[in-house]
Fold:
Amino acid sequence: MNSSIANLRQNYTLAGLELTDVSSDPIQQFNVWLQQAIKAEILEPNAMTLATASPDGKPTARIVLLKGVSDRGFVFYTNYQSLKGKQLNANPFAALVFLWDKLERQVRIEGKVDKLTAGESDEYFHSRPRASQLGALASDQSQIIANRQILEQDLKTLEAKYADTETIPRPAHWGGYQVIPERIEFWQGRPNRLHDRLLYSLLDDGTWQIERLSP
Structure:
């Protein structure tokens, strides 16, 4: 089995990546690649690996969904009392990775993490499907539960409680975070593992430096 895994290989041949191909602004470049991923009909093109770490540096990672991107940063939402929420409260730095396999591309992002304002979290929460809003209320994310029936019963209780309520209140333990990028790397697969890697690093004056990395 280990031999079979070791022999799994894919030779990347779709495209290259030169400095002349990219924007001087990594957010603009990210949006170009994201739109191309959407056009390529990649499943969940906004899915990203979010890596956080405990105060003593022990990392954890999971897939979450990007819900907004601007010059300010990359936005996602979660339960503040989840493992990632607790780690971000103690150690407010994170890394993101997007993999767009059909395009033989990935993007890595590193930076500081801030909470969104209550108003921004409210706005997004109330734009979600009603069932998703109730699900956020029902789930004590990352906490141990005895069985699934407890979760489903809690949801039924909340459905009854808010049956005649048009606006479900956003729970105080749920909201948005923003990863403020300091480094963004664009990776394009190339033949023979000689991949193209362009790294944007934020300088003290607010401009971005672009450098090519060896694969």
